[in-house]
């Protein structure tokens, strides 16, 4: 057994059964070893940002890590933006980066690169597996490190000779560290905050955005009058009919200030205290209202759901959560607008869908329009590195082939990782992409104003995507994905229903004017 | 004057007059400042790998740096692969990476990232410009560092508040370090090597691949019987009618072993001793033949052209260089093959063209077919990070709008940075892309065999691009670039001539079967 075979066998034994890959020469023994371990599925992507984003989307839905396969420093670099998003989502990923053979590094061949420096920027787990006999044990350690609560990117650097050498040994799975329980005193102290009579906001994140945490938060809010919020960019938010609808904290500092107006206590559960996404001249970065106290119930990585349940049992023993009734908007009519397209989504969303949301400015009114739709998951842009939607949708569809995946994708963000469409076609994934084509970096038009910069024609030119207009129908078809164009609400509804009904990927180029 | 204005003004004063940009919120004051410095041209790209590759191609042709504008760690990550290639090309680039405001970093907002670690992997120059009043001086230092011989990537990290703050001061250009002259003793000692009567190889690289260095190398070879070679992946190689034709060292170790067979002395001029691109089990990494001596005439960063001229004056005082006669293949006929498409290029290449060569396996026979074509420059994949061709062609066309740019682009490498086509359309650049569509990662099929890995069906699946086939005509048209498909040599020739005759970008999807 060579090192690569021991690596893949160890991964499979630890229940890592998908590898998103964009390999090169130094990874050829890993690629060849896939044929010796039939349980491992290899999924090819044409760009590493698709590989890493797909691994993120996969794990958010599967609840366990996928592996990646990347080619030296440049491959890791290309994958870095979506690994950044995964880091912010606390997504477990086993990131395998091939490198030159150990004895070859001294020659400074063209692809020689400082993989450790690049990987270290992810603040996760990094190990170089220098010896064939250690590769299995290092792989098992990587899987555990990826899954140690709350989850992280574990990067295993695999020199080519460690991969091709004989003498590989598989290693049994290492149990990851489970989330640490919150101590009883903290639970009691935080419960008391809800009894002060002063206005309280409860801000939940991480695993608390799943059904059990939402129910506990809803009970607390209903019983105590606290305002409950979900963190701005949850990794995975369960919502829709039969679940509590809890408002997300806004992206814009102005929104958050409005949402938290008058609050005297903020209870943090599974996330961090609210801060501004960017700095703006003369505006605060810290969004905790002046004079408000922050109380941490559960830090990121602690067992937030259990802690919320314990608080709920103290302050809301007899209170049921407030559950969302079924309610869909009617299909609107006429030309698509930033206001009406979200109603089309609300009207047509199928049961048990997964939404990979990179609608950005176009999606401002999406939450209201879909609150009463059938139960669904929403995956969001946790790290702010655009180009996440298409890959994450791809990985989510690999994780849940039976579920419809809806990728709401703004045009400006689409081009970073557009080749995800090809992987969707290749794997016949049930992903429907609604490409929100407003022909602008609309969010930057807004941000240019918000930072107080005085832009002229040259500045505006750098935020404009209309010269030339992109034809996403042709681009999608060029990558093997059937595509149509919708300019009216009726067309969008009809095309969505057709796309959901037919297996495999589809793209709808939805011509929606910019909000601004 | 704010910091951003002082930065751009300082860049322009130092003759940096193009900025390839993919900005975000933290760069909005830089974007706005473009309107106050009319001499700076902003060129928008939809992905950072296009930004950095374009900056590389620009500098290789313009002989001076462009600036980039990137958005925090994820933006730098996306640009890293082509910065790696630029590093290997010793290309001067002024890499501007926006960051959060200094006071905002403590809040660990979603885009907070370890920019320094990522930038340090490039082994260039990195500085964070913390104070508005220092931004101009730091920019001048960055331009100088980028241009200090032999050239490098200089990364200036620009916090948003340093950018928007008032009190910016421009800084006069700082003269960069020119290449160090080779001392007379070394010149004399190396000249003596050519007189030993033993077989000598002269391996030139860097600036020696331009006309003057090629002429000196040709004289030395003609007078002494030494075999002259150009390094495997030169940054910019001048060739064609009227210039010496000097063979490039091969990519495959087996080729190099053949080329250097029997050599007893290798004289290195402006490059490094030959090493294998990758390690292969049981094969040497060091490609210097056993028993051969290596003599360094000029290291990378020394004045290699002058040193070659001095050696030539000692050993070849009365010898003229051997200059290539005009000679073009006839346009072949029939279906395209890996053998005949290069003849179409040789037959149709216009005067004074720039070839951005990422043909990979498809281009094996290109050098012979174009040796006697009109004089042209060839830009090559210096660092092995694929996805370089389209961006480098884009930047080269910005640098030399009057010259025809021909991008020979393999399909497997195209999808990394495909949105370069959109920038070509937007800027109406004279780039003709020949997309060599062999529907495979053909080089990896070869490498799978060469590393001795036994691949089965799953491995072959990961090297196959034919499921689904990509339609590059549609993809290009979707990005605003007119496109046609060629399946015969006649069609390719006719479409090439049409593309060269018409201003603006074109793409030809050339259906060429794989070599293997």
Automatic annotation (TrEMBL), chains A, B:
The Thiamine pyrophosphate enzyme TPP-binding domain covers which part of the protein? Answer: 374-509
Could you tell me which InterPro entries the record lists for this protein?
Answer: DHS-like_NAD/FAD-binding_dom, THDP-binding, Thiamin_PyroP_enz_TPP-bd_dom, TPP_enz, TPP_enzyme_TPP-bd
Q: Name one Pfam family in it.
A: TPP_enzyme_C
Residues annotated as signal peptide: none
Q: Which SUPFAM superfamilies match?
A: DHS-like NAD/FAD-binding domain, Thiamin diphosphate-binding fold (THDP-binding)
Which residue range or ranges hold the Thiamine pyrophosphate enzyme N-terminal TPP-binding domain?
1-106
Query: Would the keyword Cell division turn up in this protein's UniProt record?
Result: no
**What keywords is this UniProt entry annotated with?**
Thiamine pyrophosphate
| NCBIfam families per UniProt | PRK07586.1 (NF005760)
The entry assigns this protein to a family as follows: Belongs to the TPP enzyme family.
Q: What is the recorded name of this protein?
A: Acetolactate synthase large subunit
Species, as recorded: Amycolatopsis heterodermiae
Q: What is the lineage of its organism?
A: Bacteria, Bacillati, Actinomycetota, Actinomycetes, Pseudonocardiales
